[in-house]
Amino acid sequence: MTNESPKDIMIEARGLSKYYGKFVAVEDLTFSIKKGEVVAFLGPNGAGKSTTMKMLTGFLAPSSGSAKVCGMEVAGNRDAVANRIGYLPENGPLYEEMTPLGLLNFFGDARGIDSSTKSSRIEKVVGQCALETVLNKPIGKLSRGFRQRVGMANVLLHEPDVLIMDEPTAGLDPNQVLEVRKTIKGLGKTILLSTHILQEVPEVADRIILIHQGRLIFEGSPDELKGETSLDQWFNKQTMDAA
């Protein structure tokens, strides 16, 4: 852990736990993420990554412990937190019959963004996510890479301070991965990013949080792993030894 000022902390988990009966999904998870930091959230399938993200965003209540976003307790401030956070779940739902422009207008209205602000925000996120060439095409006809960018544009629309992304490059081809990586790096946001593509980590992340069986087992910078033979071997060793 680092000694950041409380004002710099944008995401904070303290003793965060989630139980389903006797099953432990997440247990005593503690970490913090400072303003402008991009953190890769790693772990094997079933490690508790998605559960943690849902607790941080208010979609799921913790069994114990606390989650804070922008200094606010998520549990008691769900609406206020929702205004400060953008959540991109894995395979997030999109209305396939809509165009990207129609979708952004729809969600802009749903969020109560006034017309002039909405137009400027749509223009901004379309540029950030490079959607100019597909704005008026049905989302159902778009490639997976473009669909992912539409989802990203949607979560950026209300200018959130914090982004939480669950597997944003899953299922993309190498060219699409590069485009999404470029978009993420250019956002200048505080980002918690779950990924299974370990080669992506040094390219986008300032820090790594690795969990296994719902518990924190490593926290550090990608530079700390430069002596490792490969990220895949390091990941396997960490998660197998912790089993």
CATH topology: Rossmann fold
Mean pLDDT score: 90
The CATH architecture assignment turns out to be: 3-Layer(aba) Sandwich
Pick out the low-confidence regions: none
The CATH homologous superfamily name equals: P-loop containing nucleotide triphosphate hydrolases
Summed up, the domain count is 1
As laid out across the biggest beta sheet, the strand order is: 6-7-8-3-9-10
- Count the beta strands: 10
The ordered string of helix (H) and strand (E) elements is: EEEHEEHEHHHEHEHEEH
Termini separation? 24 Å
Helix content: 25-40%
Structural class: alpha/beta
Outline: globular
Strand content: 25-35%
What's the CATH C level?
Alpha Beta
- Sketch the major β-sheet: 6 strands, mixed
Tell me what you see in this structure.
This protein is an alpha/beta fold. The protein has helices at about 50-55, 80-85, 100-110, 115-130, 145-155, 175-185, 200-205, 230-240, and strands at about 10-20, 25-35, 40, 65-70, 70-75, 85-90, 160-165, 190-195, 205-210, 215-220. The chain contains eight helices and ten strands. The strands form two sheets. Strands 6-7-8-3-9-10 form a six-stranded mixed sheet, with helices on both faces. Strand 9 (about 205-210) and strand 10 (about 215-220) form a beta hairpin. Helix 4 (about 115-130) packs across helix 5 (about 145-155).
Structure summary:
The protein has helices spanning 49-57, 78-84, 100-110, 115-128, 144-156, 174-185, 201-204, 231-241; strands spanning 9-20, 23-34, 38-42, 64-69, 72-73, 85-88, 162-166, 190-194, 207-212, 215-220.
